[in-house]
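The protein record passed on for reference:
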Amino acid sequence: MNKANSRQFGFTMLELFSVVVVSGVLAMAAMPMIKDYQSNHTAVDLQQTFAESLAVARERAVGTGVAVYLCGSADGETCSSDWNNGWLVYQSAQPKAPGQAVPAEDIIQHIDVADVRSELKVIDEDLHAVAAISFDSRGFNAASQRLTAMTCASDSAADAAIFLERSGRVRVGKNTVTQEHPSFRCQQV
């Protein structure tokens, strides 16, 4: 056998160990960026789901000619003022107060977001928390003010927001609340 043909090719343990160590260091360096990406993606999903619920509520109000409401709900049966565990879209002659049950036949949609790590805050123009949103029989926002819904992944200010205009129009855009009130943080509401 020829000596040149009998050589074996491969990696030494030292070379293999070096590659594993370098890969581990690079993975550790990328971890904060991956976590930021995941939290931003979760906040965007929550925001989109809330905007879709607002659109469903408005369409139902216009289609049936009966008022439609949204309220926070952790259990899918009772209204609460906390939007972070989910919300209800329901049709009724009168809005339900926090703690009041919504009859099952009135519920149009129940969104459960209890496992989402982002916060959802709904505020009015005076930066007061909003416990419920209502659309009148014509699809107009029954509140006397423009409402803003923000999703926050931490206690930093939200970059984007959902706006519910007085006309009932829903739009997603740049969060102007934090521009007008730089000290505002989601945790304050």
About this structure: Strands lie at 68-72, 86-91, 107-112, 119-123, 132-135, 147-152, 160-164, 170-174. The mean pLDDT is 82. Residues 77 and 101 are 6 Å apart (CA to CA). The chain has two helices and eight strands.
